[in-house]
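Hi all, long-time lurker, first post. I run a small reading group and we've been trying to get comfortable going from sequence to structure in the token notation. Rather than ask abstract questions, I figured I'd post a concrete chain and ask someone more experienced to write out its structure so we can walk through it together at our next meeting. Sequence below, copied exactly:
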Amino acid sequence: MNMMKKPMLSGYPLVISYLGIFGMLIGLIILIPLLVIPFYPEEINQAIYFVIPGTSMIILGGLITFLYSKKEKARLEKHHDAILVVGIWIMAIFASALPFMLTGQYNLTQAVFETSSGYSTTGLTVVDVTVTPHIFLLFRSLLQFVGGAGLVLVLTATISDKFGMRIYSAEGHNDRLVPNLIRSGRVFITIYLAYVFIGVILYIIFGMTPFDAINHAIGAVATGGFSTKAASIGHYNSIPIEMVTIFLMIAGGTNFFVHFLLITGKIKNALNHVEVKSFFLILVIAIPLSLISLIPYYNHQFGEALRQGSFHFISALTGTGYQITPSFTNLPGAFFGLLILGMVFGAGMGSTCGGIKQYRIALGFKSIYWSIKEQLTHKNMIRKHFINRLGNKMIVDQQDVSQNYTFILVYVIALIIGTLIFASFNDRSFQDALFEYASALGTVGLSVGITGYHAHPIILWTSTLSMFLGRLEFYVVFIAVVKMTTDLSKRIQFKKES
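-- Answer (accepted) --
Happy to help. Here is the structure in token form:
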């Protein structure tokens, strides 16, 4: 007996069908904060703000999925994976903004800014944590947890290993821990959760409440920086808590493949990874420079200067955004500049941080060295260039170098444009504008106070776009926009000709 084949689903209807699946999963994410109600029953009146958008997303996603369920899914067309990733992120950001908007305390601009900051693991905020209910504080941390892991990391396993990998890579992940995507997702999440669990236990031991410990551990490992305290980590004035935070920030800022190598006993391969070397080389250079610039500021108190300098530079470099000082506005200019450089550089690829990333920085400096060396050698001599990546010597060709410089140039151009916008719509100095925008673009979260509840809408929307671009590393967004524009133009042209 011959079975009739299902009609094939392809093109944009296929993308929409996948968005339906992810819509249901995003709805579940919005409902998770309801678990806090049994611990804080007085906040039961806040539940409705999550029930309405959460269930609405599940129903809408379910209807879309049902609509296309009778068709066999074809392969995603070229660059449709980029469109899908961008669509998932936009859908998640706007859907997750609804709980904030339903309270009546936040408008669309502020709510979208907050959720963009959460999913991108930035940590800039318009929320006054001193009066915000626990359910919303946990929701913010949950957004950072999901965004830190990668919004589509584990969810792509619901599609298939073959096609899911393309979406996983399009989100900015360049390495798989193991050959199979589903297993890779499990290993990643296991490592991720392990660090969060360790952080929670250590934070509780050193004096945090369980609720604060959970939120801060998530924020540190996700390199997000949302805090339950207005003074961030500085609220506790505890060196042990600061040391735990530094450990978690470095863990979150390290390529998770490096963690996998360490766990599996391949310590030499992990330590030889170019990003590990460059990360600690930058720390070896930057922390003494921070110390030198801060010693006069802290009345020659060596310990306090070292504490402030090392904590904040690591927070900037890993893109976390936790702080222990009340304000950055009066700090020495040299240290201020070091923090900006740290935010621009970023930490490891395949980690939870933003910025240019250590691999690109290292490759940039290496390519300068190679270029100078080639100028001094015979023109007919052909040299192969290598870089140690994740325990393997990888050949670097001219195309790799060109693409690397292109990304850095795009990043710098975005940094300049955003800084000029920030400087134009507030009365702060250009230095402050550069600091704040570098924090947004690098998904860091350190702030001099330009962004916030009362910030100009243009500043908030510029920050939102920058956090989005910074987290998805520009190209996937550019590809998605160009692909959709091209397809739309072809469709219009076809209708005119017909």
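A couple of things your group might point at:
The longest helix spans residues 398-424.
DSSP finds 19 helices and four strands in the chain.
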